[in-house]
Backbone:
């Protein structure tokens, strides 16, 4: 039972994640833009933030991740980054996720999401907290 | 009239080599003609200078060849200039040689004096129109010099006429007529030659322009495809994300009918995703000017590819073997794409080989390149379809009949990968017996792909 914040601008993907996570009794808050996500993150203490890397622009997700880290409240909250851009950009997230300065996230997951994979990642991030 | 532009630098180098080849024939021609005139016709000429000129021409030709090779190997940035200078210098050298030859074999009376026309034709091919007229003028001046010097007696005259009476060294009317005919012939030859060359170059430029335009249009098309497929893929991901929790019962139980329909929908989105990904991949390869390349172990790459398809082979009870020739290992290229190409060959062979068959991967050494071969005992490819199987979206009849789905893009991607590596890809197949796919991959890094 954790408080999870989803920041993603695709309402359909958000809805599917909400249903998956609520089925495991997590409390889910949804923000459908980077700004809304940052506002929401400032207010309540979340246990996990799920962030889509590609919102309006490609770099938006990275910016949001960095802002989250800079605000004191979320310094230690694990961030799970959703990506669908590996094939389009050739970015190797497995490699980049190690570079915390550039990409300050704890794990990443590639779209399309599989419910089981999402839950497994979420559980492991919550446990490691 | 517009000045004919000199030939393209690459073309000019080719022409210079051609000129050097021609000159070897000239050297041999002079030698044997002199020999024939001396021994058979027994014309009394100054043979020693003739042979010396032939020898000098040979030496000078050899040096030109050496210089050209050096300049090319050093890839000098001013190569076009070097070529142009070489072309502009060689023709006067040839004119001088021919004048010297003429002097020792009858002067302007030598019927072979008209060989100057050949130099004008060569100049028309190699040089700009202005330079051609300069060369023609130089040849005419040499002609006049020769006639004048021999007429005045300052230079010796070696007569080629059968009798001394036939010698027209001092026949002023003859000399004037011969000079006029010679000069007009040369100028007319240059005019005709350069006009033809100009026309051909104009056509060449037109074709080149059309080719570049097509390339550019193709690039725009690929960019468009990239955008569209990317959008399609995003919507597909959302559809899958929504169907998935339902299928997993996270929204409550499903009736068997509901489950069946949703599963089918889901499977179709998966196939569509696979197709879209393949389309994205081939488009991206086409758009990339060059690939990121580096040295990697082909042995390890082949192993990865085999591991990737092993399970599939096992399920169909297909014997999957691989062998890499000793000594073959490190090559330079885009490792990921090479691995994918090999895996693609293997997966294809496994897909179209009936249960109990065999698929064999061999990698051999072929000097500057390695030869990757995947051979199977599958259904083979109908002969009339062989030329098409590397075309985008093409699937052979019997392949479609066996496996309904397939993108028809796998082999096109492989072909693009091969081409980006300056390699070659081809297939040998006999329907009902099996197929062998070949990929010849250069060991060294490919040069950056040109537009």
Residues:
């Amino acid at each position: 039972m954790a408080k999870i914040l989803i920041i993603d601008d695709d309402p359909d993907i958000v809805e599917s994640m909400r249903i998956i996570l609520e089925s495991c009794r997590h409390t889910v808050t949804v923000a459908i833009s980077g700004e809304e996500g940052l506002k929401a993150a400032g207010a309540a203490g979340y246990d996990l933030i799920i962030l889509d890397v590609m919102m309006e622009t490609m770099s938006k997700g990275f910016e949001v991740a960095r802002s989250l880290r800079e605000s004191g409240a979320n310094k230690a909250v694990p961030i799970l980054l959703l990506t669908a851009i590996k094939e389009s950009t050739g970015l190797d997230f497995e490699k980049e996720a190690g570079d915390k300065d550039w990409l300050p996230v704890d794990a990443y997951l590639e779209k399309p999401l599989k419910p089981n994979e999402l839950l497994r990642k979420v559980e492991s991030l919550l446990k490691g907290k | 009239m517009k000045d004919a532009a000199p030939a393209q630098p690459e073309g000019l180098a080719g022409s210079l080599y051609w000129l050097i080849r021609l000159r070897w024939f000239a050297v041999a021609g002079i030698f044997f003609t002199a020999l024939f005139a001396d021994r058979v016709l027994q014309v009394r000429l100054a043979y020693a200078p003739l042979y010396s000129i032939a020898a000098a021409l040979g030496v000078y030709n050899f040096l030109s060849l050496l210089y050209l090779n050096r300049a090319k190997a050093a890839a000098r940035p001013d190569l076009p200039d070097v070529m142009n200078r070489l072309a502009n210098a060689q023709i006067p050298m040839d004119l001088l040689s021919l004048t010297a030859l003429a002097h020792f074999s009858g002067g302007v009376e030598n019927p072979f004096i008209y060989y100057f026309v050949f130099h004008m034709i060569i100049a028309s091919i190699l040089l700009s129109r202005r330079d051609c007229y300069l060369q023609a003028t130089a040849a005419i001046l040499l002609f006049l010099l020769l006639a004048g010097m021999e007429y005045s007696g300052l230079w010796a005259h070696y007569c080629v006429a059968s009798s001394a009476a036939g010698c027209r060294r001092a026949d002023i009317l003859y000399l004037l007529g011969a000079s006029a005919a010679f000069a007009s012939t040369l100028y007319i030859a240059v005019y005709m030659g350069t006009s033809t060359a100009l026309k051909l170059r104009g056509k060449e430029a037109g074709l080149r322009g059309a080719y570049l335009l097509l390339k550019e249009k193709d690039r725009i098309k690929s960019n468009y495809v990239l955008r569209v497929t990317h959008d399609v893929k995003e919507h597909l991901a959302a559809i899958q994300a929504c169907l998935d929790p339902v299928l997993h019962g996270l929204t409550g139980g499903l009736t068997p009918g509901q489950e069946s329909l949703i599963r089918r929908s889901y499977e179709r989105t998966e196939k569509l995703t696979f197709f879209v990904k393949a389309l994205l991949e081939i488009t991206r390869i086409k758009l990339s000017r060059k690939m990121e390349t580096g040295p990697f172990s082909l042995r390890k790459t082949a192993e990865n590819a085999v591991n990737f398809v092993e399970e599939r082979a096992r399920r169909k009870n297909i014997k999957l073997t691989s062998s890499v020739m000793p000594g073959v290992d490190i090559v330079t290229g885009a490792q990921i794409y090479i691995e994918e190409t090999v895996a693609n060959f293997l997966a294809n062979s496994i897909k179209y080989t009936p249960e109990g068959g065999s698929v064999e991967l061999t990698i051999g050494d072929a000097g500057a390149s390695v030869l990757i071969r995947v051979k199977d005992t599958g259904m083979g490819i109908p002969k009339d379809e062989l030329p098409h199987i590397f075309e985008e979206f093409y699937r052979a009849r019997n392949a479609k009949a066996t496996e309904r789905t397939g993108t028809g893009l796998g082999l096109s991607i492989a072909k693009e990968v091969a081409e980006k590596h300056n390699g070659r890809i081809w297939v040998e197949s006999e329907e009902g017996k099996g197929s062998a796919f070949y990929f010849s991959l250069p060991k060294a890094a490919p040069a950056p792909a040109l537009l």
Observations:
- Chain A touches chain B at residues 10, 12-13, 15-17, 19-20, 23, 84, 87-88, 111-116 (CB under 8 Å).
